Amino acid sequence: MAPHISEFIPLNIAVLTVSDSRGAADDSSGDYLASALTQAGHKLVDRALCADNLFRVRAQVSQWIVDDNVQVVLINGGTGFNEQNRVPEAVGVLFERTVQGFGEMFRQLSFAEIKGSAMQSRALAGLANRTLICCLPGSTGACQLGWEKLIRDQLDVRTRPCNFATQLIR
């Protein structure tokens, strides 16, 4: 167990929006995540938008995984249950360890809002090279749900009994 830390430690976070239809001017989900993470005290160190292409997504995430300045990658979009959405296939193979409960908890929380449609979410998270990667659906509401209910507290070293932040500090 990591020692108790009583002072907030900001993390370096990159945000990736995966979309075939949105651009920088109308990326409300990416805007939300960038704003939420900075309001929480973290640092937005990079932000990108790319088409839902397995290899482009994998290349961008791989670049951040090997960058010692990036501790967390937040991805929005590309997690739905149709053949155009390729984020789980692009990113899942990069994980050294999958955060098994992330997708289950996200779908459970989503069920309260969207009922059975929640089962079509393929939200997932994992660790690669001491980088936490969280993949959320592309809607701003889903990003807000994921940030507020699952991610935000896990990126705070003061969260007990455990958090991811202590594993990401280099």
Automatic annotation (TrEMBL):
Listed name of the protein: Molybdenum cofactor biosynthesis protein B
Family: Belongs to the MoaB/Mog family.
Residue ranges of the TM segments: none
Chain ranges of the MoaB/Mog domain: 14-158
GO BP term, pick one: Mo-molybdopterin cofactor biosynthetic process
Pfam families according to UniProt: MoCF_biosynth
InterPro entries: MoaB, MoaB/Mog-like_dom_sf, MoaB/Mog_dom, MoaB_proteobac
Cellular compartments per GO CC: cytosol
Record key words, sorted: Molybdenum cofactor biosynthesis
UniProt pathway: Cofactor biosynthesis; molybdopterin biosynthesis
Gene3D superfamilies: MoaB/Mog-like domain
Job of this protein: May be involved in the biosynthesis of molybdopterin.
Superkingdom of source: Bacteria
Statement: the UniProt record of this protein carries the keyword Transmembrane helix: no
